[in-house]
Design goal:
This protein is α/β, with parallel strands linked by helices. Helices cover 41% and strands 16% of the residues.
Length: 321
């Protein structure tokens, strides 16, 4: 057979296939994240500060206090088999703290920002990092997780987003699971009121000016929060990428409101650590309750009672009792 006939049977190679073939080759697989024995790379300082308002030691110390307090009330069961969700994980400071006690394959880190998902894949390889939509449902199956952490997430969600994610957490956890969140209390609005008074007196520092724009009337909002009302403070800033101001800004959720909303979702508030005890938000420990047994329909109960009554009457007639 002629050589040209053989060559004609070889499929052509596309430019894309060729570019993939020509790319550099890894000499070894990247090691799975293990912060206890090998500190991972930090993200740029500007990213740290953008997401948590601090960086390096201050940011990690706050995360450590949160996770240490969580493990003081951790879900029961074999920790070696548990699955944990770090919701709103950002650049992964809470995830890093979870890796002190859990393997990377036990942790799912989820954030609305796909850039943060990429960052976690590169700095914490082995962790199950995914991107979630701003609104439920998530990609997780029912009753997947034994524990969920959400640091400085519900302190930013609108009322409807807060309610929907509370219900979604109920779906992806099981009875006995623990959820650890933080929320802003009315103290935050008192701080905003102070910023508004400072601006009225001539203060021009950017931080103070921005804080003063969070709500139109901080004193009125503070009074509403003290009455147990949810306050969503969406002023003072534009959308930040995937974090739209329609659902993500500043949110104050009083304890009575949290107990009602999360109670309706199927959770019990087990502990409330007030603002200032650990950091400048309140920490809430919630436990998933077992679902209430479904009540039988009234008509069914009545029919059942009549049937039992007829059966007893027949039995009496036969036995003479």
């Amino acid at each position: 057979m002629a050589s040209e006939d053989i060559d004609s049977t070889v499929p052509s190679v596309s430019a894309f296939v060729q570019s993939l073939s020509d790319a550099e080759t890894l000499e070894a697989l990247p090691p799975v994240a293990d912060p206890v024995n090998r500190a991972p790379l930090n993200p740029p300082q500007r990213i740290q500060q953008k997401f948590v308002g601090s960086s390096y030691q201050a940011a990690y110390s706050e995360a450590e206090r949160f996770v240490d307090r969580a493990f003081a009330s951790w879900a029961e069961g074999d920790i070696q088999t548990q699955r944990v969700l770090d919701f709103g994980s950002g650049w992964g400071r809470i995830t890093r703290m979870l890796l002190r006690r859990l393997r990377a394959d036990q942790i799912w880190s989820s954030d609305v920002d796909s850039e943060m998902t990429v960052l976690l894949h590169s700095t914490l390889p082995g962790v199950n990092a995914v991107t979630n939509s701003p609104w439920p449902p998530s990609v997780f199956r029912d009753e997947t997780f034994d524990a969920v952490t959400a640091f400085s997430v519900f302190s930013h969600l609108s009322e409807e987003a807060h309610r929907q994610w509370a219900a979604e957490f109920a779906r992806v956890t099981h009875p006995g699971s623990k959820v650890f969140i933080t929320v802003l209390e009315d103290d935050f609005l008192a701080t905003v009121a102070g910023a508004q008074a400072a601006v009225a007196a001539g203060e021009t520092a950017p931080f103070t000016v921005n804080l003063a724009q969070v709500v139109p009337d901080a004193l009125a909002s503070h009074a509403a929060a003290q009455r147990g009302e949810f306050v969503y403070a969406g002023g003072g800033a534009d959308d930040d990428g995937p974090r739209k101001r329609s659902f993500y800004s500043w949110a104050v959720a009083p304890r009575s409101w949290v107990e009602t909303v999360w109670g309706e979702a199927g959770f019990t508030v087990m502990e409330w650590v007030k603002t200032g005890e650990l950091f400048d938000q309140a920490m809430v420990v919630l436990q998933r309750r077992a679902p209430e047994p479904a009540a039988a329909a009234p008509g069914l109960l009545h029919r059942g009672a009549r049937k039992i009554g007829r059966g007893l009457s027949k039995l009496r007639r036969r036995t003479g009792v």
